[in-house]
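Internal ticket #5521
Category: modeling
Description: The requester needs a full-assembly model to guide mutagenesis choices. All entity lines are attached below as received. Residue total reported by intake: 345.
Assigned to: D.W.
Attached entities:
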Amino acid sequence: QIKKSHMMVTCKKYVLVKHFKGEPKPSDLEIVEEQLPAIKDNEILVEAEYLSVDPYMRPYVARFPTGITMIGSQVAKIIESKSSKYPVGKRIVGSLGWRTHTIINTEDQKADSLGTPGNYILPEIGDLPASVGLGVLGMPGNTAYFGFLDICQPKAGETLVVSGAAGAVGSLVGQIGKIKGLTVIGIAGSDDKCQWLKNECGFDHTINYKTQNVGVELKKLAPDGVDCYFDNVGGDISTTVMYQMKLFGRVSVCGSISSYNADVNAQPKTTILQPAIVFNQLKIEGFIVTRWADKWQEGIVQNLKWIQEGKLKYRETVTYGFENMFNAFAGMLKGENTGKAIVKV
Ligand code: NDP
């Protein structure tokens, strides 16, 4: 239970006690209580409502020393304020880590270590739940919007393949592909996910990579080859897709979740991909979404408009309880989520 007494709160936070090795283990993190002081001028006290669990946390946290609060973003409500720009009751989206309460100095707003725009007031989201600030109207939504459109430069009539298709980013990329007039093929890890992509998200075709042969199915679904590939997973799936691309195909390399639990220094680093790149004359580009930090609002505004027009569907897999953050994180890495994985405090 969170105790509150005269502007003093006890925060709960997850401390990284051991770096992840292979699959993250519950014992790698520890829940610790921290007494927060009273806030000072220009400070606000926020209380987490929704926390995000994202794939990048798995490899990215290795850059930090043990003892840090586990990294991550959250939607938090301002419960106390000594800053006129940040009134009580407003919500912010911030990279505050896995913690229930945080004091923020509003005069010291800088981009976080990932480069995501610092803490910002949750943008106008109509009557959608605040959790969308972590998904379709936040970092994953902008990843899909900019990472697909800017890098793949899609044209109507082309064929798009998306891996990790039923996740937070992939499900949006495929739908943006449909909005732009492409034929969209999604690769995902269960029949239920594939059904959702076809029936609700409007994907033309899907491949369940756990039960079907991706190369064989893709040959049938895109006999003339693939123009755009949005890669969320890396590994064998991606090598297979790249061999079936058209001349001058474009690949947006967004993520590589198939290797996040692997010790890449102890393994061969690539399957043989280069002939596909050379002979198909592919353009392959990796990106980090913060590249578009100065256009952040553009992505949010466009995705919101598409939602309101009924063109963009989103789903969230919500885990309840701050004490279940680890399970939500580990479950997401194993594919238990459809759409955005979120924790509601
Ligand atoms: P998702 O919601 O897609 O969740 C992760 C999904 O990955 C799981 O649900 C699972 O679905 C799939 N998965 C897990 N292991 C494997 C595997 N071995 N092979 C294939 N699929 C696997 O996460 P996000 O949408 O948030 O992120 C998707 C990707 O985009 C990640 O790689 C992430 O790191 C990257 N990303 C990159 C950003 C950037 O700036 N470059 C920004 C945001 C995300 P399934 O059941 O289908 O296996």
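Resolution: model delivered.
Comment from assignee: Residues 54-56, 140, 143, 164, 166-170, 188-190, 193, 232-233, 254-258, 287-289, 332-333, 335, 337, 341 surround NDP (CB under 6 Å).
Ticket closed.
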